[in-house]
Structure formats: C-alpha cells, structure tokens
Amino acid sequence: MDARSAALVRADFRSVVESPHGPERLISAFYGHLFAENPGLHELFPPAMEMQPRRMATAIQYVLDHLEDWERAQGFLEQLARDHRKYGVEATHYDSAGRALLAAFRAYHGANWNQELEDGWRDITILISASMAIGANSDTSRPYWDATVVGHRLVLDDLAVVRLQSDEPVPYQAGQYVPVSVPQRPKMWRYLSPAIPSNPYGEIEFHVRKIRGGWVSPAIIGETTVGDRWKIGGPLGGLRVDRDSGRDVLLIGAGTGIAPLRAQLIEMGQRGINPRVHFFIGGRYPCDLYDVENMWQLSQSNPWLTVVPVCEQKTNPWWYPHPVQDEPYGMHRRLIGNLGAVVASFGAWADRQIQIAGSAHMIADTRRALIAVGTPEHSISCDPV
Ligand SMILES: Cc1cc2nc3c(=O)[nH]c(=O)nc-3n(C[C@H](O)[C@H](O)[C@H](O)COP(=O)(O)OP(=O)(O)OC[C@H]3O[C@@H](n4cnc5c(N)ncnc54)[C@H](O)[C@@H]3O)c2cc1C
Ligand code: HEM
C-alpha cells in the first residue's frame, strides 16, 4: 500500500474513532453484514457485547499503526485468529469477514464514500482477512482444553479457590494466564491466572474474586459445583523470572493478583538454587491476605524467599468478625499502608527484576510509586489488564 493511501485510511479511521459512537456504528454495521452472509456465525457470540466495538477498533488501529512494520501487524493478526479458534471461528470465515468490514466502512460513510476510500479500505480489509486466515490455518494444536471442577472452596465470601483436573495437561508456564469459559456463562471467556504450575496430572488451581455486577465471576463464586466442565484456552502473557540475568527478584501482588506470582514461587520451590525473592502481598484488610499462611510456609522451607504482608487497615472489617492472627515466629511483621507506597519506602529496588500483578488500578498506582523513587521502568513487568 502506498504512503498516500495509508495516510488516507489512517485519517479516515481517526474520524471514525473520534466521532461519538463511531466505533459502535462501524462495528454494528460489520456484524450486520457478517451475519447476513453467515447467519450461523451469530451463535458464536455471547449475549453481552458492549466491549466488542472498542476491542475490534483497537485491533484495527494496531494494524493501521504498523503498516510500515507489516511483520508485527501480521504476527498480531495471526495470533488473534489462532486465539479466535476457541470461539469456533475457522479460516474459511475470514473471507466474508473482510467483505463485511469493507461493506461496513461503505455503509458508515454513505454518500461521502469515494473511490480512493474504496481502494484504500479494500487493501486493508484484504490484508486483515488474509493474515487472519493464515493464522487460523497455521496452528493445529487444540483451541482449548476441557477440564473438570474437582474442588470449590470459598476462602472469603467473595473469593473462591477452584481446583480443576484437565483431560490433558494445559501447557502453560507459571506466571501466564489463560482464557476460561464456564458452563454457567457459555461463550463469555474471561482471563484467569493459574495459581500453581502446570503438572503432568493436569491439575490447575484458580483464585477468583467476585466483581459486583460482573457476568462471569459471580457465577464462578456462587454457582460452580464439583463436576462442572470448564474450557481453558491457550496460555498468554510473559510474567517470568529471568534466571540468566543474575538479578534478584521483587514480586508485588494484591488480591487474586498473587496467583501468577504464587505459581512461579511454587515452581521455584521445586528447584535447588534460586535468586533472592522479596514477595510483597497486599490487601485492604488483613483478611484479604487469604493465602499468606501458604506463602509463609513456602518461605520457611525456602530461605531465598521473604514474604512481606501489607494491609491498608490494621483490623478486619465488621463483615469478617475474626481476630487478626499474629505472624508466625521469624516471619516479616505485617506493614500498614498503601502497597505501592510501602514497597517504594524501601528504596528504588534498582537492582531487581520486578513483577506487579493485581487490578489495573493497583498496577498503575504501584508502578507510579516505584518510578517516583527512581526504579528503572524497564525493570518492571506486568501483564496487560
Ligand atoms: C491478564 C488477566 C488475568 C486475570 N486473572 C484473574 C484471576 O486470576 N482471578 C480473578 O478473579 N480475575 C482475574 N482477572 C479478571 C477476570 O478476567 C475478569 O475480568 C473478572 O473476573 C471480571 O469478570 P466478570 O465477567 O465478572 O465481569 P464483567 O462482566 O466482565 O465486568 C463487569 C463490570 O466490572 C468491571 N470490572 C471488571 N473487572 C474488574 C476489576 N478487576 N475490578 C473492578 N471492576 C472490574 C468491568 O469494567 C465492567 O464494568 C484477570 C484479568 C486479566 C486481564
Ligand atoms: C468471521 C469473522 C469473525 C468472527 C466470527 C469473530 C468472532 C469473535 C467472537 C465470538 C469474539 C468474542 C466476543 C466476546 O467475548 O465478547 C471475538 C472477539 C474479538 N474479535 Fe473477532 N471475530 C471475527 C473477526 C474479527 C476481525 C476481522 C477482527 C479484527 C481485526 C476481530 C477482532 C476481535 C477482537 C480484538 C476480539 C476481542 C479479543 C478476543 O477475545 O480475542 N475479530 N470475535
């Protein structure tokens, strides 16, 4: 595609994204054309799709931003299509997706459509659909694994530890996350982070917190029973300890964000030699540190690990009427304050490889606190939220 055409489609897409409800109008036209040509595809989608226009617009924007670095754009589209296999989307569907996307741009612009836009968007939609078809065809591994719930334990009113046994081991690395679909909310895939490393027996553990008003997490907390069959998609994400760097490790996790960090620590516990690790576990109340006893136990048999509990409040809330237990002898005392501020109060941790995991808000807060005291930005890893 020549530079003039690229500039034209970029400017045109900016006008769509910046106009009120532009992405919604465009993507709704896309689905209108797609389902008119393939009525069966409607079945693949969940009932609630309010996030979809933004997600799809972000994907198209990524492609437009990388037209001069096509390998990156193609890699992204191929990965997207490999991932789409879990929804049941096949390579043969992308031809008509390309046509539907071009028709959507035409419909969006109505009388303002012209030959230059037609030529520019035709090139882009062909590039997208061809790359996605290649991606869908390029992977013969399974799109998802089936697993049976073998345990469901409420550790807090709104937090469950769910154990599953997959029919075949899911090949994730400790620290990665996986898309999950549960029978109570079919087709609504959500990301969860396994809290134990992958093992040959196919055992997986997830820690799930209920998000009020959410579709899937309340069903996992309140409706999941032993025997339920879950689907687990291919692993994603790059949180890992770089053993070759020679650098010690700082892990910071809050809430169920501890899961990917915990999985890595359990895996490290299976090795003889490890870098030194400081693990700060944060929560609002002491009861939010629901797994700290297990982490203390792990640290007792692994001298390279120091666990530091941090709470914003000293006591439990009224709805959790249990006294706060003292730390076991020899364990780091509980610190009180904002997690990011407490970690940053120790200094910049400039010689460490650092991982932060938790809610989007907690990650942004903690990053900011560390960078403010001089932590090099490139030392900090966190997964997209
Ligand atoms: C990489 C990654 C790993 C994850 N790992 C885990 C995990 O191990 N355990 C776990 O419990 N969850 C984890 N999550 C979050 C999980 O994927 C879901 O987003 C969460 O369970 C909410 O889903 P829902 O269907 O209940 O809510 P939705 O129906 O998707 O959302 C309902 C509303 O709640 C808002 N919302 C969604 N998530 C949050 C949040 N965290 N805090 C505040 N508001 C929110 C949404 O914006 C929306 O307005 C992870 C997310 C990512 C991106
Ligand atoms: C025949 C074509 C396609 C079908 C049937 C299809 C189907 C789906 C389905 C069922 C979802 C899940 C929706 C949800 O959970 O709310 C999804 C998500 C998504 N789709 Fe598509 N899609 C197609 C083409 C495309 C194209 C062409 C793009 C962009 C270039 C795209 C980008 C995305 C993105 C970014 C998401 C969200 C991320 C994800 O969950 O993987 N899709 N799609």
Could you explain the architecture of this structure?
- By secondary structure, the protein is of the alpha/beta class.
- It has three domains: 3-138, Globins (Globin-like, Orthogonal Bundle), CATH 1.10.490; 144-233, Elongation Factor Tu (Ef-tu), domain 3 (Beta Barrel), CATH 2.40.30.10; 249-381, Nucleotide-binding domain of ferredoxin-NADP reductase (FNR) module (Rossmann fold), CATH 3.40.50.
- Helix content is 39%, strand content 18%.
- The chain has helices at residues 3-18, 22-37, 52-65, 70-84, 93-109, 115-138, 217-223, 258-269, 292-300, 339-344, 360-372, and strands at 144-156, 159-166, 178-181, 190-192, 203-209, 229-233, 249-254, 277-283, 305-311, 335-336, 353-357, 380-381.
- The strands form two sheets. It has a six-stranded antiparallel beta sheet with strand order 4-3-6-1-2-5. A six-stranded parallel beta sheet has the order 10-9-8-7-11-12, sandwiched between helices.
- 34% of the residues are buried.
- The model has no long low-confidence stretch (mean pLDDT 95).
- The chain binds flavin-adenine dinucleotide and protoporphyrin IX containing FE (HEM).
- Residues 177, 190-193, 206-209, 211, 213-217, 237, 256, 259, 359, 383, 385 line the site of flavin-adenine dinucleotide.
